[in-house]
Write a structure and sequence with these properties.
By secondary structure, the chain is mainly β. It has no helices and 11 strands. Strands 2, 4, 5, 6, 9, 10 and 11 form a 7-stranded mixed beta sheet that branches. The protein has a 4-stranded antiparallel beta sheet with strand order 1-3-8-7, with no helix packed on it. The protein is elongated, with a radius of gyration of 14 Å.
């Protein structure tokens, strides 16, 4: 059974940093795109950033230049380095991966999310 498990969330003061990690496990043959999304209270889930297996990166918003996405293909892990955090970054951060696994089809998988809270 394929699982995505996020870690690294927590409570930090504005201006601080956090590094999120997401590891995919299970029967996985290949992962194409991995990404991070977030959902703030009362808002829809939104894209933060994605990264392909080859390292092509897309950030959803230029204001997110404070964030850096990276990936370790050997470990099936994606990271999100977040700097200069602001209270408006408070949200549950979800990991997503499009992968070819035990079902023998390309499919999207989601983690359960990790809470990030930024205090002012």
């Amino acid at each position: 059974q394929v699982q995505l498990v996020e870690s690294g969330g927590g409570l930090v003061q504005a201006g601080g940093s956090l590094r999120l990690s997401c590891a995919a496990s299970g029967i996985i043959f290949s992962i194409s795109v991995m990404g991070w999304y977030r959902q703030a209270p009362g808002k829809q889930r939104e894209l933060v950033a994605t990264i392909t297996r080859g390292g092509n990166i897309n950030y959803a918003d230029t204001n997110l230049e404070r964030f850096t996405i990276s990936r370790d293909n050997a470990k099936n892990t994606v990271y999100l380095q977040m700097n200069s955090l602001k209270p408006e970054d408070t949200a549950v951060y979800y990991c997503n991966a499009r992968l070819f696994g035990e079902k023998s089809v390309w499919d999207d998988y989601w983690g359960r999310g990790t809470q990030v809270t930024i205090s002012s």
